[in-house]
Amino acid sequence: MEIQAHKKTITNFNKSNEYRAKIHHLIPGGAHTYSKGDDQFPELSPAAITHGDGCYVFDPDGNKYIECLSGLASVSLGHAYKPVVDRVVQELYKGNNFSRPAIIEMEVAERFLNLVGVHDMIKFAKNGSVVTTAAVKLARAYTGRKLVARPIEHPFFSYDDWFIGSTDVKSGIPTDIQALTVTYSADNLQSLQHLFDQYPNQIACIIAEPEKFNVLPDHYLKDAINLTHKNGALWIMDEMITGYKTAYPGSMTKYDVVPDLATWGKGIANGFSFCCLTGKKEIMDLGSIKKTGAEKLFLVSTTHGGETCSIAAAIATMDEFEKHQVVEHNQKMGQLFIDKTRALFTEHKIENNIRNMQFNWHASLGYFDNEGNNSFGLRTLFHQELIKRGILFQGIFCPNFSHQEEHVNAIVEAMNDSLPVMKKALDEGWEKYLQGEAIKPVFRKYI
Ligand SMILES: Cc1ncc(COP(=O)(O)O)c(C=O)c1O
Question: Which of 157, 207, 275 to mutate to test the pocket of ligand 1 (most atoms within 8 A of CB)?
């Protein structure tokens, strides 16, 4: 395996530049999630990917990179991971979509519910946003209440109006809908209590990622779920990122808690489009068609929800997680990244400007100027320098099963080689060293 990609300096982005020039005329935003957009990357970067292999990706100019964010955290095993691809291909030869459910739907339903352990029913979808929105709809129907509550610090739950209306990007969303989502401070029981006091008997559910940014206070999840139930609301645990990363299947196992509903996606099918909502029977059953005479709730209903190739990918992914110690391996790689980068930043006396944040399953870096302010300029410059050295880094190392120690070492070495420019930029200004504009926040009111 060739690990030395970072040793060469990548300067050729000609085909990427052609792609960049054309794509915005064809696709609004230039991508199908804003997180992949040009405004999230330095100008000297690949505009698109031609293919991936393990933890490597390749751009249209033939440049090769170690990819750090693993397909926005959706690729848990590796790109084109053979056991998954083989299982998918096998299924494809049997046909991909039928006018009645595919028989494989029951297999994955039973297997995934068995894995989750505490939930009775499951509904599939192709995107995480669909299942979080479905969970919110169920909670509103079950409680007969309107308001949805979410931690203000948690960045994303859905592209649907109930969530986007609570961010700075409100265009196209009626104010009446915006007012139906309220916020509290993450991992803070007092703030949650305050919210319930402020809106008595009005909150249908809390939707939150189980762990994000901070180490949880002792017993927090249990206490928060109890408090929510005491106030007649439901707890929706969004395991989109934590699923198959913090534990197998996720943080609900790690903390031994039972949310009313849980949402899953990203790494559970190694990048294939399989997401799901799991939950308690009395809530999920509202989407049933068996209770003659009861009012019907239109739960998730999509042509492609039962697509067999993605379901096969989910099954093959479970097989691999059960055959190998994938969670342990991925966390070990993440921890190595944290330990080595922390030592590196200290050695270069830049630890106040580039800080390790978060967890070994999703290890991110924060960038700060000499006054301690968050700096998008320094962030973009560091990513530019790493991309030059063959490391496609977006501020987060989210390890997958194809990342090995050599890859972590290669990332750290590229960082070591990039730090002298960062030191100069801190003294002289990042503008002097960055080509093009700094990255901008995804959730911003104005372009
Ligand atoms: C925590 C969380 N929930 C939900 C979603 C939405 O998932 P999708 O992009 O598949 O719609 C995301 C996507 O990044 C997420 O991070």
Answer: 157
Q: Residue 358: its pLDDT value, please?
A: 83
Three-class SS of residue 287? helix
User: What would the two tokens of residue 22 be?
Assistant: 């054309």
- Residue whose Cα lies nearest atom 3 of ligand 1: it is 157
pLDDT of residue 200: 98
Q: Are residues 144 and 288 in the same domain?
A: yes
The two three-digit tokens of residue 326, written as one number: 């994938």
Cα–Cα dist 328/334, whole Å: 10
Q: Which amino acid is at 36?
A: K
Atom 10, ligand 1: which residue's CA is nearest?
Answer: 128
H/E stretch holding 357: strand 354-359
Helix axes 308-323, 82-92, angle to 10 degrees: 150
130 CA closest ligand 1 atom index: 11
Question: Do 71 and 45 sit in the same domain of this protein?
Answer: yes
Q: Supply the range of the domain harboring residue 67.
A: 4-80+325-432
Does the beta carbon of 127 sit less than 6 angstroms from any atom of ligand 1? yes
Would residue 347 count as lying in a domain?
yes
Task: State whether 232 and 126 are in the same domain.
Answer: yes
CA torsion through residues 51, 321, 257, 212, sign: negative
For residues 250 and 124, state if they share a domain.
yes
Please calculate the CA angle 338-341-343 and round it to the nearest 5 degrees. 105
Give the pLDDT confidence of 310-342 residue by residue, as tens digits.
999 999 999 999 999 999 999 999 999 999 999
The atom of ligand 1 lying closest to the CA of 132 is: 4
Q: Compute the distance between CA of residue 15 and CA of residue 30 in angstroms, rounded to an integer.
A: 15
Burial code of 183-208, b = ≥16 C-beta within 10 A, e = fewer? ebebbbbeebeebbeebeebbbbbbb
Residues in the chain: 447
Residue 188: closest CA among 165, 162, 214: 214
Q: What is the pLDDT of residue 1?
A: 43
Instruction: Extract the residue ranges of the chain whose pLDDT is less than 70.
Output: 1-7
3-state secondary structure of 51: strand
* pLDDT recorded at residue 26: 98
User: Model-level pTM?
Assistant: 0.97
b/e string for 423-434 if b means 16 or more Cβ within 10 A?
eebbeeebeebb
Task: With beta carbons less than 8 A apart as the criterion, state whether 181 and 149 touch.
Answer: yes
Q: Tell me, yes or no, whether 264 and 168 share the same domain.
A: yes
Cα 231 from Cα 212, distance rounded (Å): 24
